[in-house]
Amino acid sequence: MLRLVQLELQKLWLNRVSRILIFISFILPFTVLILSSIKINFFNFFTLELGELGIFNFPIIWHITTFFASYFKFFFAIVVVSMIGNEYSNKTLKQNLIDGLSKKEFILSKFYTIVFFSLAATLLIGIATFVIGMYYSSYTEASIIFREIEFLLAYGVKLIGFFSLCLFFGMLVKRSAFALAFLVILYIVEWLVFWAAYYFTGTTDAAFKVKNFMPLESMYNLINQPIQRIAMTKFPEKNDLAYDYAVHWYEIAIVLGWTAIFVSLSYQLLKKRDL
């Protein structure tokens, strides 16, 4: 496994664009550190400091940082599809197979690299969240600090699932731009599935239950939006704001299932393709 990861890291390091995108994908999530220290002066009437609003308290901070950091995954998604596109355009895929790398090892090298970067990103977000929380949070008890750390697990699984989807699209079309366009197409398809389910069931609840099993929707559901939860802390008397924001094991299982499907399909495409 280490040999395959080292092989991919060497390829990425030699590519200037990939180096820049990887750097951006790791740095941008840390903008939450900057946001936590922002002070907004409203015409000298009062100063709004985000860190003083309580949104960086434990345990809610795990939810907030992982949700917003997950939106920066598109930068590394470009790297993933580029890994495949460059293999075809530079003829390195064929050369690797000639040099003794099997097709299975080729796909695994891409997947292991995805897992490596996903775990690294999860670790960095975990450290950043812990540091911000320890600085701003009113709660310092260990039981409260680590109460909702499962959001980190959901974040890591979300990255692995999404990048595996990008790997499959990259293998399917062999071009970076087209592979990313397929994400938009899939998004539209999932909504078409929703409306088809609504047509046959007659209820939005049943339609959403069907849509929740789709790839992009299942990945999004791992970490639900925290805005409504923040509002709940400010207006606890409003029961209509209550919603289920927890990380559930079956949601993780669905994404892991899609991850296995995407990696398997990528291998089958390469296995059957005439190089």
Search tags:
single chain, 275 residues, mainly alpha, 3% strand, transmembrane helix
Q: How would you portray this structure in words?
A:
The chain crosses the membrane at residues 20-40, 60-84, 111-132, 152-173, 180-200, 249-270. It holds the Pfam family ABC2_membrane_2. This is ABC-2 family transporter. Keywords: Membrane, Transmembrane, Transmembrane helix. Strand 1 (39-42) and strand 2 (46-49) form a beta hairpin. The protein has a two-stranded antiparallel ribbon. It has 275 residues and is an all-alpha fold. Helices cover 73% and strands 3% of the residues. The protein has one domain (2-272). It starts with a helix and ends with a helix.
Task: Decide which structural class fits the backbone.
Answer: mainly alpha
Largest sheet: 2 strands, antiparallel
Number of helices: 14
What is the tally of beta strands? Answer: 2
Ranges where pLDDT stays below 50 over 5 or more residues in a row are none
Helix and strand sequence:
HHHEEHHHHHHHHHHH
The fraction of residues assigned to DSSP E strands is: under 5%
Transmembrane segments: 20-40, 60-84, 111-132, 152-173, 180-200, 249-270
Organism: Winogradskyella epiphytica
Protein name: ABC-2 family transporter
Keywords: Membrane, Transmembrane, Transmembrane helix
